[in-house]
């Protein structure tokens, strides 16, 4: 979006008025692929209606679906004018017919150049030699893996609500999880330069951003390829002292990469959210072994204990896959018991999706779809009880809430988040009493008292403006 904007394009989310339609896609699991394809087809139809008075002239498909099905998209959807994979973002300009940008001032950047040695980690090299990143069977996927990594000089347009922004600090993944095709889509793990991340964060805060969420497929590996030890902790330490940065958080942690130093850093800074998203994927030892992730429920419980001891009150989020090939009723019971005991604040459950190109694709013992659905429902039911109990304990607490605006459900309510809610994914704080205020301002922080609790959401009343 930043590149297009700099080249003179005007952004709109209104499809009727767009001349160029860009569909940014995902192809991580079946449901995501389906949603991507449905959207492309819908836009293709919209473009075809251009002859009948519509404005759309071009349809561009971008993102992970292109990395995986480049040829198929071109062959089967002739309305698509161009495809842009994750490793060729700058091609969006040529695809849009805007490749002669207006006066472009490109600062020379000492951080951009990504050489082979800078990009490599021993795990990545080893796994590459073992064929971990093979895309041979994908239709039209180019043999080379994406290497792209943006930096602080890359133009950006924020698509998030005003006070909040994401910063990608690393790209790709070297972990060997057998159900996952992300390494094939995103390439080997590589970190952005330390100073480049700081420069971007400072610039976002100067533009009014108050909450920064660091993202990457595995943020806890940040800096390993740059020769940094505890790179994420070092980065957080440095970012936390940026004046006016109210909340700082990161997604996602790999369980065995949560170091003592990382926890100390989270505990030490008031503006680092007490929030940890650590996708565990399962809790039964045999399933985790087959997933090529290792560990078991007992090890995870110890990790959670360590986390909670280091930073009391830390909100914990995780996600699980049910129905992985070979998962027995006993394995599933182990997972249910673990969820009862671990008491996560937030939890997501995914049904196993059999992905061509993943190692699990070739495993025996595939679990029937009906069983997967039942296990998913059962696990969420358990979590619902855990969450209801936990949220009831929020009543009476005073917390800072980042108000995001009028509720989409009813104009009678406004909604926001606390430091224990990451953007877009966790529950909601509904505000039904503005306290001393006639009206609230979106993208501002208010001190609120929690007055009611539901299964996942809570209700609050405003007490005062919160110091920012
Ligand atoms: S760590 Fe995450 S992104 Fe990397 S292979 Fe495992 S599931 Fe995929």
Model description:
The protein has 14 helices and 16 strands. The chain is α/β, with parallel strands linked by helices. Strand 1, helix 2 (30-48) and strand 2 form a beta-alpha-beta unit. Helix 9 (231-239) packs parallel to helix 10 (260-268) and helix 13 runs parallel beside helix 14. It is globular and about 60 Å long. The two termini are 29 Å apart. The model is unreliable at 101-117 (pLDDT under 50). Residues 173, 175, 177, 180, 182-183, 217-218, 254 line the site of iron/sulfur cluster.
Main attributes?
alpha/beta, 18% strand, three-stranded parallel beta sheet, 468 residues, five-stranded mixed β-barrel, 14 helices
Question: Element order, helices and strands?
Answer: HEHEHEHHHEEHEHEHEHEHHEHEHEEEEE
- For CATH, the homologous superfamily of the largest domain is named as tm_1862 like domain
Strand order of the largest sheet: 12-13-14-16-15
Distance between the termini: 29 Å
Low-pLDDT runs of 5+ residues are 101-117
The helicity comes to 25-40%
Topology-level CATH name of the largest domain: pyruvate-formate lyase- activating enzyme
Structural class by sheet pairing and helices? alpha/beta
Oligomer: single chain
What is the CATH domain class of the largest domain? Alpha Beta
CATH architecture assignment of the largest domain: Alpha-Beta Horseshoe
DSSP, total strands? 16
What ligands can be seen in this structure? iron/sulfur cluster
Shape field: globular
Averaging pLDDT over every residue, what do you get?
A: 92
- The number of domains: 3
Number of helices: 14
The major beta sheet can be summarized as: 5 strands, mixed, barrel
Radius of gyration: 23 Å
User: Which strand-content bin applies to the residues?
Assistant: 15-25%
């Amino acid at each position: 979006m930043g590149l297009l904007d700099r080249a003179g394009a005007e952004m709109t989310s209104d499809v009727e008025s767009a001349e160029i339609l860009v569909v940014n896609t995902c192809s991580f699991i079946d449901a995501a692929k389906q949603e991507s394809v449905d959207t492309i087809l819908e836009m293709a139809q919209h473009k075809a209606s251009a002859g009948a008075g519509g404005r759309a002239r071009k349809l561009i498909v971008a993102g992970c679906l292109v990395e995986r099905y480049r040829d198929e998209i071109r062959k089967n959807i002739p309305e698509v004018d161009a495809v842009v994979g994750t490793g060729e973002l700058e091609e969006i300009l040529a695809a849009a017919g805007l490749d002669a940008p207006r006066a472009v001032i490109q600062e020379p950047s000492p951080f951009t150049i990504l050489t082979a040695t800078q990009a490599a980690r021993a795990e990545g090299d080893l796994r590459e030699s073992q064929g971990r990143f093979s895309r041979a069977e994908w239709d039209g996927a180019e043999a080379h893996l994406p290497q792209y990594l943006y930096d602080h000089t890359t133009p950006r347009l924020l698509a998030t609500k005003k006070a909040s922004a994401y910063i990608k600090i690393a790209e790709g993944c070297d972990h060997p999880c057998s159900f996952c095709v992300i390494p094939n889509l995103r390439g080997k793990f590589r970190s952005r330069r330390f100073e480049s991340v700081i420069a971007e964060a400072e610039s976002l805060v100067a533009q009014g951003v108050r909450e920064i969420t660091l993202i990457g497929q595995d943020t806890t590996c940040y800096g390993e390829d740059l020769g940094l030890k505890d790179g994420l902790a070092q980065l957080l330490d440095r970012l936390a002292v940026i004046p006016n940065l109210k909340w700082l958080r990161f997604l996602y942690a790999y369980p065995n990469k949560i170091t003592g130093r990382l926890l100390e850093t989270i505990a030490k800074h008031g503006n680092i959210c007490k929030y940890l998203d650590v996708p565990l994927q399962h809790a039964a030892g045999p399933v985790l072994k087959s997933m090529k992730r290792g560990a078991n429920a007992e090890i995870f419980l110890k990790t959670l204990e360590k986390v909670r001891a280091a930073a009391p009150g830390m909100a914990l989020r995780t996600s699980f896959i049910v129905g992985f090939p070979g998962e027995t009723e006993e394995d599933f019971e182990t997972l249910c018991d673990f969820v009862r005991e671990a008491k996560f604040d937030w939890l997501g459950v995914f049904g196993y999706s059999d992905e061509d190109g993943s190692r699990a694709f070739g495993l025996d013992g595939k679990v029937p779809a009906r069983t997967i659905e039942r296990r998913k429902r059962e696990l969420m039911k358990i979590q619902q009880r855990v969450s209801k109990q936990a949220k009831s304990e929020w009543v009476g607490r005073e917390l800072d809430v980042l108000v995001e605006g009028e509720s989409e459900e009813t104009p009678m309510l406004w909604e926001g988040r606390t430091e224990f809610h990451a953007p877009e994914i966790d529950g909601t704080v509904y505000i039904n009493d503005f306290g001393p205020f006639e009206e609230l301002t979106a993208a501002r922080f208010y001190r609120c008292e929690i007055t009611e609790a539901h299964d996942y959401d809570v209700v609050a009343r405003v007490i005062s403006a919160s110091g920012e």
